[in-house]
Amino acid sequence: MTTNRTVQAAADAALWLAVHRGWHVLPLNYGTKRPLGGCASCRAENPGHTPQTCPCLARGDGALCHGVWAATTDPGVIARWAQRWHTSVWAVHLWASRLLAVDLDTRPVPPPRQPLNGLPWPADEPAPADGLDTYATLAALSGGTVGTNTFTTDTPSGGLHLIYSTTRQWKGSHSKVRDGDDTVRTGLGWQIDIKCYGGYVVLPGSTSETGLYRRSSITTTPRPLDPWLTDALTRTGHDRTATAPAADKPTAPVPVVDTDTGPARYAASALRSACAELAAMEPDTGRNRKLFRSTTRLAGMAQAGWIDRDVVQAALTEAAHHAGLPAAEIRYVLASGFGRPLPVPDIRSAA
Fold first, then answer.
1. Cβ burial, residue 41 (10 Å; 0-12/13-18/19+)
2. Sheet of 90-93, strand order
3. Angle, to 10 degrees, between the axis of helix 131-141 and the axis of helix 227-235?
4. How many Cβ atoms are within 10 Å of 14's Cβ, its own excluded?
5. Which residues is 217 bridged to in the sheet?
6. Is residue 170 within 8 Å of 239, Cβ to Cβ?
């Protein structure tokens, strides 16, 4: 439950960090902890409307478009947001602020047999109880220590957000274990989430439905990434600027569809655009929502006979796999999307 005091405290904390630390902040929905707002073009499936070309963002007057890319350091904009949205949950856009967050979870689930990606778990080490244990062991194996002498937030669930400064673009990751597997094969390790490019974390001083986010560090200055953490992130493929060898670098799937008629050409183009965008998306950038919206749009075209449903399903599945979505999640989202087809657009003027 929020009060005027909790709302003001959250806005004040966000404003302080924007002014004194240069962090790009934005308000979130109290219930979902997702970015607010969005103009009509941002909400529509318009592949040409990107953060870089959005006129709303270009005005710099506080339009909440394109999720975290609307974040700002402008005190006037932050004050208007606080008055307009009256939310007690604020976040920092990490990459815009040149930050990386290590999000350590404490979900009460059994750990896998091998909780670290690419490193065997020490035989004499007890199984980790949560992400804090996993991260501490990773640090020890890497010749470092966790250390909390950086900007640190206690989350309502008992987890931690460790915030570091960085000048490199890092991919976000969630270290999930596939069904039937007992080894972490993505990210850093079990219950360790990495957030940087296109990612955000809730700021201390915020109060969500789950509780209060508190700053637990003495310092309000994030320290640079530890060398051991930089090495671990590089080893596990988090560096967005690294170039994979040509033979090993996967390419985005491009669906091939026969296009005999105007509607078929339109549907094929829509499918190619949707797959290209989805395949290129990083964690924490709305991959699930993108898949659902693309499915509902193309489901309507399939229902109208513009394109074959199996072609749509196969192409979107491949693109979603390329983006890193789990197979079970892809199946669920596709089923939901095909169950809610959108009306086909009027393309007579484009025929």
1. middle
2. 25-27, 90-93, 200-202
3. 100
4. 26
5. none
6. yes
In this prediction, residues 276-283 reach a mean pLDDT of 82
Round to whole Å and give the CA distance between 295 and 317.
10
- Token representation of residue 172: 């976000």
Sign, CA dihedral 52-291-284-90, equals positive
Question: Cβ distance 253 to 319 under 8 Å?
Answer: yes
Q: What is the pLDDT of residues 26-36, one digit of tens each?
A: 999 988 898 87
Q: What is the pLDDT of residue 38?
A: 66
Residue 207 Rama label (left phi>0; alpha psi -120 to 50; beta): beta
- Taking only the tens place, the pLDDT of each residue in 298-308 is 999 999 988 89
Cα–Cα distance, 296 to 309 (Å, whole number): 11
Over residues 300-319, the mean pLDDT reads 90
CA angle 201, 14, 35 (to 5 degrees): 50
SS3 274: helix
Dihedral sign from CA coordinates of 225, 173, 67, 8: negative
pLDDT value for 259 = 52
Residue 22: what pLDDT?
A: 95
The answer to whether the beta carbons of residues 152 and 158 sit under 8 Å apart is no
What is the tens place of the pLDDT at every residue in 175-201?
878 777 899 999 999 999 999 998 999
